[in-house]
Amino acid sequence: MTTITRRTLMIAAAAIAAVPAAAHDYTAGDVAIAHPWTRAAGANGNGAAFMQLRNTGAQPDRLISASTPAARTVELHTMTRDGDVMRMRPVQDIPVPAGGTVALQPGGFHIMMIGLTAPMNQGGRVPLTLRFERAGEVQVELAVEAAGARGSGHQH
Predict the structure, then answer these.
(1) What does the alpha-carbon distance between residue 121 and residue 66 come to, in Å, rounded to a whole number?
(2) What backbone phi and psi angles, to 5 degrees, belong to 6?
(3) C-alpha dihedral (82, 78, 61, 129), degrees to nearest 10
(4) How does DSSP assign 50-109, residue by residue?
(5) For residues 116 and 15, is the Cβ–Cβ distance under 8 A?
(6) What 3-state DSSP class applies to 116?
(7) What's the 3-state SS for 8-37?
């Protein structure tokens, strides 16, 4: 094998390896969705979706709903501290301010998937459709991380 052929193969391999990281970011209108992920969970249980929402536009937006064939019900939630107890509460929407970023993360805003229709296995992908007031609708894929994960292992 010649040096040029090896070099060409190395460049091609590097380009292919970079595709999954780039494919894990999405855009809907002025909203950039980065690193959508979830934790492994069993069928009939519950799961949560996490990601970063960044509004690059001059107008505020709101995440108004989400859906997935992987769960019977999907709700937008937040976690709040009530004394020494953390309580999960549904919310009508998740504001995404103009020029701002909102983190959907464990212990804060998240998308609750209730009544999983099948197991979510580590290393898999789960489709999730997000609906924004201004940016419209976009389908993303959640990377399934370990059951106890605290953050996406797919950070850049």
Answers:
(1) 21
(2) -60, -45
(3) -170
(4) EEEEEE-SSS-EEEEEEE-TTEEEEEEEEEEEETTEEEEEE-S-EEE-TT-EEEE-TTSS
(5) no
(6) strand
(7) HHHHHHHHHHHHHHHHCEEEECCEEEEEEE
Reported as a single tens digit per residue, the pLDDT across 16-57 is 333 333 347 999 999 999 999 999 999 999 999 999 999 999
Cβ–Cβ contacts within 10 Å for residue 119, how many?
A: 16
Query: How confident is the model over 85-112, as pLDDT tens digits?
Result: 889 999 999 999 999 999 999 999 999 9
Question: Could you report how far apart the first and last alpha carbons of the chain are, in Å?
Answer: 33
Tokens linked to 116: 């999983």
Burial class (CB in 10 A: 0-12, 13-18, 19+), 102: buried
